[in-house]
Every structure is written in C-alpha cells, then in structure tokens.
Amino acid sequence: MGFNTFLGNENAVAGLRSMLASQSVPGAMLFAGPDGVGKKTLATMLAKALNCETLNDDYCGDCRHCRKVEETLALTRQDLARRREMKDAGRRADGLVYFDVELIEPLTRFILIEQIRQLRSTAYSLPFELRNRVFIIDQAQTIHWQAVDLLLKVLEEPPETTRFILICPNSSELRPTLRSRCQRVSFRPVGAPLVERLLREEKKVPASQLKLATAICAGSIAAAKTLDLAAFDRRRKPWISFLDAIASRDGRSMPPGQWKTLLESAKELADARSELEASLRIGYSLLRDLLQILEGGAGAQVLNMDLTTPMNAWAARLGLEGVERLKSGLDDTYRLQTRNINQQLGWESLAIECISESCPEGANRV
Ligand SMILES: [Zn+2]
User: Fold this and answer.
1) Cα of 57 to ligand 1 centre, how many Å?
2) How far is the centre of ligand 1, averaged over its atoms, from the C-alpha of 69 (Å)?
3) Tell me: the pLDDT tens digits for 236-247?
4) Residue burial 177-198, b: 16+ Cβ < 10 Å; e: rest
5) What is the pLDDT averaged over residues 156-173?
6) Are residues 150 and 202 both part of a single domain?
7) Do 207 and 294 reside in the same domain of the chain?
8) What CATH number does residue 135 fall under?
9) Ligand 1 midpoint to CA 65 (Å)
C-alpha cells in the first residue's frame, strides 16, 4: 500500500509527498498529462493521504479513513455508471448527493452545470466523516462552459477543508482563468523500460514481440495492462492490405483483383464499427511510419517495426506526396466519421479517392 505502489511519474509523486509533509497541499490542483499514466489513480491516492489516520506524507490503506475513502469512491463509481446508462440524458444529474470524497466525470458529453452546482453547495459545508473533502474532477476539459464561472468562484477561495483536483490530458484545453487558479502537477508518458517490464511480467509478452508491444503502448501504463496483441494484429491486417494494394499499383493500370482487395479492405474496416478508434490509430501509425521512413532514412524510428520490409517498399512507391495524400484522405474520412455519416461510405470513398488521385492523368483505369 502507499505511494510506492504507483508506477512511473516519480516527480509527480515526490512533489505530492513533499506538499503533504509540509501540510501545504493547495486547495486547487491540476493533474495534466497524457492518458493512461495514472492521473486519476494518483488523485485517489492523494485523497487517502489527505485523510489517513496513521501517516503524514503517505497513506496506509488500512485505517478507518483510508477504507472510508475507498468505499466512498466505489459508491461514486457505481453512481456514475448508473447515471450514464439513463436514456433520458436530461435527468442524469437529478438528485445528486456528494460525499466527502467525490469523483466528478462527464454524464453526457459534458460535466453538467448541475454537477458543479452540487459541488459548490457541498464544498462549503464541513466534511461528514473525514478530515478533508476531496473533489476529483476527471476530464475537466469537458466542464460545460456555463458551469466554468461557477467553478471559478469556488476555486478562487477554496474552503479550508476542501481540495479540488482537476484532471485533463492537455491543460491548454482549459480556460486560462481556470488553469491559473490551480497548482499544476505535470505527468509524462512512462519510460519504455517500465512498460517493457510490465508487458514481460504481467502480460507474458514473448521477447520476440516485446519491442513492438512496448512501442504500441506509447508510454501508457493503462495500454500496457490491457494490451491485446492478437487484437492489434487483427485491426492492422486490413490496413496492410489497403496500403499494399495502393502501393502496388504501378501508375498505369489497376488490375481488377487489386480493386477488389482494396474495397474488401475498406469493407472489413467499416465492419469493425466498435473498433473504429483503435483501427484509426493504427492507420495513422502506419502513415506516420511511412513518413518517417521517407524523411528519416536509415535512422527512422518506426512503430510497426515488424513491417519494415513492406513499409520500405510502400514508401518508395508512394513517395512523400502519395503518403501525404493518404493522410489527408484519412483526416477527411475521420471528420466524416465523427459527424456520424455512413461509415461504409466514408471508407470506400477514401479508398477510391486515394486511388484516383494518385492515378496519373489519362491512365488506364480498369
Ligand atoms: Zn490510513
């Protein structure tokens, strides 16, 4: 138990411990940094440490208060899940009750004004059972614009027994007035050796795939803990056929077989509706690798390192312009997607557009 169980971001942990030791934990803090590195986990650890009955700059996990924080957070998570499932989004914030330690997350696309209103009215009352009240506001960038001013007023003069921890991936997404009222704790992607160790020890990734798996996780502890290499392969496969089909076109003609492969790839991607985000990330990573190869030459740092041979061939055939065009085609498709336009249409139009645009004028298209 305690902060020493937290993986990575040692500076952030050391900073919090020294604030705890000197009893100078500020009323409002901002935990900013990439997804999957444990910002919310560390915030809940801090909530325990601020209330622990036995330790000053850490938490025991065992005393009455530590257990209370844990129980309260479990109830809060259940409550959030229940509210998010409600069909009538307008009623999701009905009858909110906030405990001494509270997790506040978006109930729709936003953290709603009712949630901040409830936070404000609870913040000024003394904690029920604990020494310190802690409000953890996850995805603070989603706080509804109408609620920001309300929150600002509380953050301006936080009640003595209340701490606010705002969490967001990118602090520039927060309004500057909000940002300036919080003391910032920065998080970074965790180092490759730590990710590699997690993958080796917990996920039993074989040595031959360790480098690729570590690169895929991109410094995220959460990604390392949930990595599924088989799923990665499955999602990447259509992209490989897609790129292979486009790159193998010789510029003069497009044999019918290749058109078929291409459209089948597009269809396969579109069918994976629930996996769209993950699939798109893979597509982008392949295009980024191709750009790296074209621009970085021998020193290129590619993610899909097991595909170096085919990627070198695709890069040579597509050229910088071809890869850029693919990327902008993908950007457009992504924008269409997020506007909920028919997915299949999106993928197929991307495939067709990429082919026809990279096909020279007057070329014989079969
Ligand atoms: Zn304790």
Assistant:
1) 11
2) 9
3) 888 898 888 888
4) ebbebbeebebebbeeeebbeb
5) 93
6) no
7) no
8) 3.40.50.300
9) 6
